[in-house]
Write a structure and sequence with these properties.
By secondary structure, the chain is mainly beta. It has a single domain, classed as Beta-galactosidase, Chain A, domain 5 (Distorted Sandwich), CATH 2.70.98.10. It is 2% helix and 45% strand. It has one helix and 22 strands. Strands 7-8-9-10-22-19-18-13-16 form a nine-stranded antiparallel β-sheet, with no helix packed on it. Strands 6, 11, 12, 14, 15, 17, 20 and 21 form an eight-stranded antiparallel β-sheet that branches. A hairpin with a 5-residue loop joins β2 and β3. The longest helix is centred in the last third of the chain and has 7 residues. It is globular and about 50 Å long. The structure holds 6-O-phosphono-beta-D-tagatofuranose. 6-O-phosphono-beta-D-tagatofuranose binds next to β20 and β21. InterPro entries: Aldose_1/G6P_1-epimerase, G6P_1-epimerase, Gal_mutarotase_sf_dom, GH-type_carb-bd. Catalyzes the interconversion between the alpha and beta anomers from at least three hexose 6-phosphate sugars (Glc6P, Gal6P, and Man6P). This is Glucose-6-phosphate 1-epimerase.
């Protein structure tokens, strides 16, 4: 395992060639190479200097998904909250052997830990500034998959509630040949139609225009993203009962200054594992843990 870090990012790679790159800004995974391919989409115009949430990779959504509601503790926060626009600290790594590899140099996987707490935040423009929290975010690079998991602790004396989600931009060769399996029978809230509830379809989901859907799907059910009917990614979830599927398509992509190239929407699909359709209450002193695993098939 080799790790390199500077004051802006941490990169880890396995001797077999897999690698992951994490910006300390937002603890945003901006690259994950596995099976010889880059598996995350990163806009060519993404801000990587901490001036704006990263357009691509795996931005972290916390404590609120979407535009914050009125008359709520999150009112006043930016869309998707402050986690993805805060400077996290790198807490270190741990690598582990696997029985499969006789070498005892821990070459089978590496776990990178990142931390954020309320004491690290500047000017929170909302009631949230009165809450205390500590988050440990673990990014684990395995030979065939990437795991991202959160341990969110309420270190204060009052309960608070939150949403959290991994806003994963998966790389695809051609969106017109993508089908998503596992969600088809579920109904969803269609954000392109004002959040209207739409019944599920029978066949796999395909994308031929702007898609912005919020599904609830039992975490025990995996999601497969296929290209030309060949499965490419399998997403497993723990404690994350909601899945957002998003592709901005042509005009929305053009309207985002940090989305490039203009036709980049053809090479990405966001499949976002989260807990966002209802508020999660975290009692003082409690810890919430959840995560996702994305396997390259
Ligand atoms: O992916 C779901 C979503 O909420 C979309 O509605 C769209 O707004 C997207 O997130 C991107 O949001 P952002 O704040 O990163 O531009």
């Amino acid at each position: 395992v080799s790790i390199s870090q500077d004051n802006a990012r941490v990169t880890a790679s396995l001797p077999t060639g897999e690698s992951v790159e994490v910006l300390l800004y937002g603890a945003t995974v901006i690259s994950w190479k596995c099976k010889g391919k880059e598996n995350l989409f990163l806009s060519s115009k993404a801000h990587l200097d901490g001036s704006k949430a990263v357009r691509g990779g795996i931005p972290l959504v916390f404590p609120v998904f979407g535009p914050p509601p009125a008359n709520h503790a999150t009112t006043g926060l930016p869309q998707h909250g402050f986690a993805r626009i805060s400077k996290w600290e790198y807490l270190g790594k741990s690598s582990s052997e696997s029985s499969a590899t006789p070498s005892n140099t821990g070459d089978a996987s590496v776990k990178l830990d990142f931390g954020l707490s309320n004491t690290m935040l500047e000017n929170i423009p909302s009631e949230w500034k009165k809450y205390q929290f500590g988050i440990t975010y673990s990014v684990t690079l395995n030979k065939e998959d990437l795991e991202t998991s959160l341990a969110i602790r309420n270190t204060g004396t009052t309960d608070w509630e939150f949403h959290t989600l991994f806003h994963t931009y998966l790389a695809v060769d051609n969106i017109s040949q993508v089908s998503i399996k596992g969600l088809e029978s579920s109904s969803y809230k269609d954000k392109t139609q004002g959040g209207k509830e739409v019944q599920g379809t029978s066949g796999p989901i395909t994308i031929a225009g702007e898609v912005d859907r919020n599904y609830s799907l039992d975490p025990s059910k995996t999601i497969v993203v296929a290209e030309k009917n060949k499965p490419r990614y399998e997403i497993s979830r723990d404690m994350l009962g909601d899945v957002v599927v998003w592709n901005p398509w042509e005009s929305k992509a053009k309207s985002m200054a940090d989305f490039g190239p203009e036709d980049g929407y053809k090479n990405m699909v966001c499949v976002e594992a989260g807990s966002v359709l209802a508020w999660n209450t975290l009692e003082a002193g409690d810890t919430w843990e959840g995560g996702q695993r994305i396997q390259v098939l």
